[in-house]
């Protein structure tokens, strides 16, 4: 069980950069559910989508896995012989709790897809041939100058017919669209119990390390990385998930 997210509920003299540490790991399930519109639908659907594209005797990567929600979903839904999931994150606190959740899942459900965790920087990680790669709200934390190289590496590792599932918060080139969807996102947070102080302090902490792109930017980058086709399959307010296909 996770705790209720109250990390930004009191006024802070100085708001530092957001860090995926023990405090965040402890409240992360509550934080993400109350902060990202449609998150439960995205997680459940990642498992369903992976189940359609996973190939026999292949690897599946969950890159930037945090607490492993997407990994758990894929373990439930992928029923393809010889597949296994590798869940990767560079934050030790997040990966430790991810491992605990996976062990608990093993204890409750039989015949799940095998999964292992690895602590690594995904920019430096060597990828083995794979049929599905998940970047679920991960690319937005990668330095913009490094994003194309990461997608190139993923494309090269994917087997023919493989896919990348990419979920991101979106930026919008049209100012009115950006302002309107941002306003609705804050309303979503308030409806989930966050105060204006919490919203403002969380925004200050994360805006320096999470740098979103427009959907058009994502699509153009995927083309440059060699993906044959990509499309959005889900959007709620300013949050989106896409599928990119390898020929």
UniProtKB/TrEMBL annotation:
Known EC number: 2.1.3.-
Q: What is this protein's function?
A: Catalyzes the conversion of S-adenosyl-L-methionine (SAM) to carboxy-S-adenosyl-L-methionine (Cx-SAM).
Signal peptide feature range: none
The protein's superkingdom reads Bacteria
Coiled-coil ranges from the UniProt annotation:
none
Query: Does the keyword field hold Transferase?
Result: yes
How does this protein assemble?
Homodimer.
Q: Return the broad EC class.
A: transferase
Q: Which residues bind S-adenosyl-L-methionine?
A: 39, 64-66, 89-90, 121-122, 136, 203
Q: Which PANTHER family match?
A: CARBOXY-S-ADENOSYL-L-METHIONINE SYNTHASE, TRANS-ACONITATE 2-METHYLTRANSFERASE-RELATED
Identify the HAMAP family for this entry: Cx_SAM_synthase
Protein name in UniProt:
Carboxy-S-adenosyl-L-methionine synthase
Q: Which reaction does it catalyse?
A: prephenate + S-adenosyl-L-methionine = carboxy-S-adenosyl-L-methionine + 3-phenylpyruvate + H2O
Q: Which organism is it from?
A: Halopseudomonas salegens
